[in-house]
Amino acid sequence: MARKQRTELQVEEILDSLSGMERAEPRPFFYTRLQARLAAETDPSAWGRAMAFLSRPAVSMATLILFLLVNGVILFSAVRKNQATEVDSSQAIASEYVEVGNQYAYVNQYNP
Amino acid sequence: MLLVDALKRGDESAFRELVETRQGLVYNTVLGLVQNPEDAEDVTQEVFIKVFESVHQFKGESAFTTWLYRVSVTTALEYLRKKKRKKRFAFLTSLFGEDQNPLHDPPDFVHPGVQLDNREKARELFAAIKKLPDNQRIAFTLHKVEGLSYQEVGDVMGTTVAAVESLIHRARQNLKKTLKNLYNEGD
Questions:
Q1: Chain A residues whose C-beta sits inside 8 Å of any chain B C-beta
Q2: Which residues, 6+ apart, have CB-to-CB distance to B41 below 8 Å?
Q3: B1, B82: one domain
């Protein structure tokens, strides 16, 4: 019980610890630093602006996703093209075989 | 209103006057929320840049000081969210080499305006304040750190005095719970 009361008292003291506090001020020459930042932000070089834009996490992530997407599309279309070529070549072999078969038929039918 | 009119005209000396007379107000509010002096300096600069760029949007529906508090609070919360996001994606951003600044906060923040005798207690209180939900944290900080009345806190947050009372009451309850847990764990 006594411990509980002691804790309550300590907590109350902590909650009141901000009473009589003074306002904090920034370091001296704040306005000079602010002016420097304003000048830098209002007139950056084109290169600086481009780099700042590119280094944004959203832009970097979007570029990465676009890169992966383009890679995926190229890979997918290459696989499809390969399949089509395989079908074409097998058809060519088949037709060649049929043609060869016809030649044999012609030879077989040859009767001098 | 003269200062605001001059600011709207882009008067540089008016801007200087604004910064020099209100830098403490903005810095103290921001510091109470972000709990890091370097971050607070950055955010304070951001607040004044925002004011410089958007003062024409100030319609005079509230006092200029109230509007300045609102910009300060919003900017500080945006900064904290951005920082949290950065922490989450720290691995990815390190791959892109965005910036090499450490993202962790110093473990024990003590507001420089706290009286010497109360420093240890205030350290624990600020650590507990960090765990409060945003609206309770704003109300408690504006009232306790900036010394605003419930009415003024209500004006900044766009809510009623009763709502502010409720927010601060809930904040105190949550802080008590956190601090008690801390003491019970310590035993």
A1: 3, 7, 10-11, 13-15, 17-27, 30-31, 33-34, 37-38, 41, 55, 57, 60-61
A2: A26, A27, A30, A33, B27
A3: yes
